[in-house]
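Hi V.,

You were right to ask for the full record rather than a summary. Here it is.
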Amino acid sequence: MYRHIITSIIVFFLIFSSATAQDLDKILQPVQIGNKDEKPKLSEKDLAYQYYTAQEFDKAAVIYEELYKKEKTSYYYKYLLYSLVGSQQYGEAEKLVSKTMKNNKLEEMYYVDLGYIKIAEGDKTKGVKYYEEALSKLKADPNNIQSLANAFTAIRENLYSIKTYEKGRKLLNNDQLFSAELAYRYYYTQEYAKMVEEFLKYAEYRPNQKQYVCGRFQDYMSNDPEGTITEAIKNGILSNAKKEKDDSYFFTDMALWFFIQVKEFDLAYKQAAALDKRADGHGKYLLDLADICISNNKYETAAACYQYIITSYKNEPVCLDGKIGLVNMSYEILKTQEVINEEDVAALDQQFAAVFEETGMNLQTLDLSLNYADFKAFYKKEYAQAVTMLEDMLKIGGRITKAETAKIKLTLGDVYLVSGDQWEATLLYSQVEKLMKDEALGDEAKYKNAELFYYLGEYNWAEAKLDILKTSVDKFIANDAMKLSLFIKNNKGEDTVSYALRYFSKAELAFFKKQTSIALLYLDSAATVNAWNPIEDDVLYKKAEIYISLRNYVVADSLLKMICDNYSTEILADEAMYTRAVINDIYLNNSSLAQQLYQNVFVDYSESVFAIPARNRFRELRGDVKNEESSVSDPNLIYAPLLKQ
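Predicted structure:
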């Protein structure tokens, strides 16, 4: 079934609740304890923290002092210290540190606190002296090193945190230690080359952390408008890759990953070819890269990947994978052309025939066979040949599964529908419904049947079938069914609106038949059937869907913008806005506009199903700071109020 292309790039979140209305009333009923107007009393600890976060440090200090007298924990000590400093009670803060220091073996930690007090007071010279004193007392103990580094990090003294780790390496005589911790500190000091060096060292000596490091790099590159971090990552990876021995390919693989991330696919191809030779990959890296290139419309690079496989592995099974990939890609390209060239169709027919002759018809080449039959019907108009091919596939026998049978029959139904034999088509769809009852393929067949009646103008029949599908196990089908049912309900009727709906459904049938120019003409008719027409925003949306199928994202974006500007209160507005955001984010590489559009979605359409994914992606593009140290350091660090920027 031809799925709504726009829907395929949108994330859907469906939330179900099993609670009844009475259950919800009970759950939402407030528990009354005492006076209903009386506010719950905060504990001393919570009240102190509330004062602290409100920067009322003098009030926080009074409570934390009492709490620390009762329970001398490091938690209360730190909050008391920072509250005293925040309220400029430097003398009291120094007394607290000196007194606590006498009863604790880890005196170097308290030199850090004394240094922090002095610098907050304005005596930088004395403060630095205390920091150096703390560093001089560092022991050859990983826990001691980590604790002192965290103490510096808590007051944003990242340079001294770095010095601590560097000295710790020397004391332990191991320059592989603390790589991830150092990498994060270098990020905050904007020493990006060193950051990359440490992350790469961390990944090289801990191969199971490679994916983690790549994830960090990806985050940094997504928030790097000047490209300085991206350049540092590129230089670091390539520098290490050049030094690799012939039997090693750790950094070559990472270089391939990098070039894919920055969409430099020609360079990615070179890395994939080098990696294939080094790792004896048997074409796997090239096949994977080809798939990525196709999804990014980089067909020339994808073709180069397939040609490499065909040339390099002539006598191996993967050679056939290359040939199949190449012909399927050529078919995908043909489907994106608004005007179909007959010469291109004839050339592709020969290409299909050559590969099909070599592969034959079997279960391993099922997808190729389905594509070939689809091509025969939709572009060659050779319906009889397509039908014969699909019926022969049903006779393969052997290990053919119910699902495979269903796929063949669905394609056969599509062929009959495009050829004009809608009754044979509905018969086949109904067979699949019964064969795959309560499964996704069965629901797909039901949806195809509903669409068929919709195409024919039998709107009541279509609605009846669509209503059943609203609870489909396939969320995409359920969503499509809900939208189409609502569309029919809102637009069917009498007079001009009915004519508009009929033009619209004819346009959808033409689109299904790959007749895009005819579909666009019908849509123009639907929009202009009278002066004012409630179907106009749907027309714009369907046109956008057509242009997305043709990979013409610029035109699609302009059409969706018209919906956002002129129909902001209509049902399609939030989806149009979110789709625009995705298009600009992924296909047009306009991250600043994408960020604004994502924000518009969750601000202007807060109840939309797209609000949550829009907010999440907005935060990613904005580069919100994450507590990255928590994975390699103390997750319970308390940060002081006077932080160095």
